[in-house]
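Folding follows sequence. Below is one example:
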Amino acid sequence: MNEIYFDREQCRDFGISYFEKGEISLPADVILRSKVNGYDLQHRNFLESIGKGIVYLRKKSDNGPGWYTVESF
C-alpha cells in the first residue's frame, strides 16, 4: 500500500491538512484507532502488519484530498 487516507476529522486531530501539502509520522496502531468508522480491509491489513511501528507520510500536490503517500515505515 502506498497511500493512506485521512478524513477531515483525523486531519484536524493530527494537525495536518486535508487539501494542502504536508507531512506527518505516526505509529500505525494510532492511525488505525483514529478512524471513527474504521478503515477498509486493505488499510487495516497494511497498518496491522506494521503494528506500533512508525509510518512516515507526505501529502504531495498531486495527492487527492485526504490522501498521504507512504514514504517509509
User: Anything to note?
Assistant: The longest helix spans residues 41-50. Residues 3-72 form one domain.
